[in-house]
């Protein structure tokens, strides 16, 4: 059974900092890994999708990496802004999409 | 990205009544849609996989007679919470992906918050 863990559970940083969110998964037999953003009371917004054959994906200030062999993915956010404040979830897609508990990010002005 | 729409976004009902939540893929066809439940400050829990034209596949511990899923077309899946009770109060989210299989990107609806009085 796939288990996904996200560290840290919560993170508070001043505006402008670069930061890294971590995601680990126990079963490396995945099709892809997806990072999402969830604002309070809202659904999930897909940020980045990394296929199992890929090492990283970039979109704007976001960069996600994937190391299947070690069961790890990281989401790097450059020059953080208050608007980045949200909960970030990673999901490992095997027979089903398994989510981590999320990292609640607060970027302070 | 692709758009998935959920309706209603919020619903309040009395105990014992049934509530239907719709999930629509607006600009793509989805053979498979997924229904999740999310408790406060927790991650999403997969309830069931909705398959167009066939029965849904429920996760262990999810009552199929309680949570009725119908996937009548390639763009619409519905979740009906039957005889709702206060413990069914939760945030329900659906997702869908274009095409078939598990290799594609999943897109999520905005979620539906159910409150059972």
Question: Main attributes?
Answer:
heterodimer, A: 109 residues, mainly beta, six-stranded mixed beta sheet, five-stranded antiparallel beta sheet, B: 117 residues, seven-stranded mixed beta sheet, four-stranded antiparallel beta sheet, 11 strands, 50% strand, globular
Describe this structure as you would to a colleague.
- The complex is a heterodimer of chains A (109) and B (117).
- The relative contact order of chain A is 0.34.
- Chain A is 0% helix and 59% strand.
- By secondary structure, chain A is mostly beta strands.
- In chain A, strand 4 and strand 5 (44-51) form a beta hairpin.
- In chain B, the strands form two sheets. In chain B, strands 2, 4, 5, 6, 9, 10 and 11 form a seven-stranded mixed beta sheet that branches. A four-stranded antiparallel beta sheet of chain B has the order 1-3-8-7, with no helix packed on it.
């Amino acid at each position: 059974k796939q288990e996904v863990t996200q560290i840290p559970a919560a993170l508070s940083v001043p505006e402008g900092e670069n930061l890294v969110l971590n995601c680990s998964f126990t079963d490396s037999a995945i099709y892809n890994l997806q990072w999402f953003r969830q604002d309070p009371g809202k659904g999930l917004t897909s940020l980045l999708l990394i296929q199992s054959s890929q090492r990283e994906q970039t979109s704007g200030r976001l960069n996600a990496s994937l190391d299947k062999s070690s069961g790890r993915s990281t989401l790097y956010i450059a020059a953080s802004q208050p608007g980045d404040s949200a909960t970030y979830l990673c999901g490992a897609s095997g027979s089903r999409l398994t989510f981590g508990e999320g990292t609640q990010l607060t970027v302070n002005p | 990205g692709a758009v998935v729409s959920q309706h209603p976004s919020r619903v309040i009902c009395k105990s014992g009544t049934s509530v239907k939540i719709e999930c629509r893929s607006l600009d793509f066809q989805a053979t498979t849609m997924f229904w999740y439940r999310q408790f406060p400050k927790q991650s999403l829990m997969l309830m069931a996989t909705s398959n167009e034209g066939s029965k849904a596949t429920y996760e262990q511990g999810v009552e199929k007679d309680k949570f009725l899923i119908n996937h009548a077309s390639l763009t619409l899946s519905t979740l009906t919470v039957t005889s709702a009770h206060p413990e069914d109060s939760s945030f329900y989210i659906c997702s869908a992906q274009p095409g078939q299989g598990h290799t594609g990107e999943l897109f999520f609806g905005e979620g539906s918050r159910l409150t059972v009085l």
